[in-house]
Amino acid sequence: MIKEKAHGGLSMTTQLEQAAQFILTKTKQNILSFGDQLPTGTAEGKYKFADNGFWVGGFWTGLNWLCYELSGDQQFSAAARASKSRFTQRLYEQQETLDHDIGFLYMPTFVADYKLTGNLEARKIALDAADRLKERFNEAGQFIQAWNVWESGEAFSEENRGRIIIDCMYNLPLLFWAYEETGDEDYRRVAVAHADTCANTIIRPDFTTFHTYVFDPSTGQPKFGQTFQGYADDSCWARGQTWAIGGYTYAYKYTGDKKYLELARKLTEVYIDRVEPDFIPLWDFSVPNPSEALRDTSAAAIAAASLLELAEHVEGEEKEKYVQFADNTLQSLYHNYSTKELPDNEGLLVNACGHHPAGSDIDCSLIYGDYYFAEAVTRLLGKGKGYW
After folding, report:
1. Is 45 annotated as a binding-site member?
2. What is the Cα 334 distance to its own chain's centre?
3. What is the pTM of this model?
4. Other CB atoms closer than 10 Å to residue 170's CB: what's the count?
5. What amino acid positions are annotated as catalytic residues?
């Protein structure tokens, strides 16, 4: 349990309850205007939408499931299911639009529904999604191909045939869950192989991470690390580091292999050592002129949720350290970076950084930042069952 401590005269539990109420109130307001649409990031405080959810659609559904757990209010469970047809159409009729982020799309949606309500149809859809993720496995290189070829003949796009990205580590729980549900060893085999390949390539010897890593798709031979969303090929993109922390924590949870736990610990130390004093990281840890660089609250939220999961697998002072760090991160997010005093802003957190090099979703709210903020609050209140 977290220690009670004051902030502005309020206990930490009271602050968490206030944060939870803030999340519930704003999400309920958004339900009325969003309908079955899937939000991505904000522009001038209003969410934009993607018809098929892009790679982030599952987080709006997951946010509603979290609110259902926090409140028991069936308005949230109804909202969580409102976009079902968008996800099923994409899975069964538009498979060419899917990439390795299948876990992000179908874990906080259909796996969550099954875990919370026992919905067997949701279970089947989630298992079908796991099949699509498993099919992306490159046997020669022992990795899951991240992205599809966006533009035939263009060099970077062609390299996608042999590309992994660090985000995929957080998608592996879909395969581990499918193994536990079915007993089919192939799901586990693919997930473990990918985790091991990432450990040997995309994670550097100093436990920073490349954003992407490229292999020869025919032979599986490792070639080089490269960035797409980070500052430089040899930099450490903050959100990527947090995807790695959570991904290896869950790999340990599902396998019990302590090498994954050790990786999660080492990756966490890098993050803790490099995060800013207010617990919110710069968008990339390697940027020049840090005082002028943008923050990324979405990375902070992912870190908080991931460290609360990591804390479940360690004991004593180490456990307390991770929980306290997550506490401090949530306090900073809620008091300094939330929209609690911006009632017309549809997001929960401001100052998130989506794709800095492309100038896309800069200094805004991002639906996955909002989701992980809510997940961490729900966890600390002891009300979340976990969807990963």
Report:
1. no
2. 19
3. 0.96
4. 24
5. 101, 167
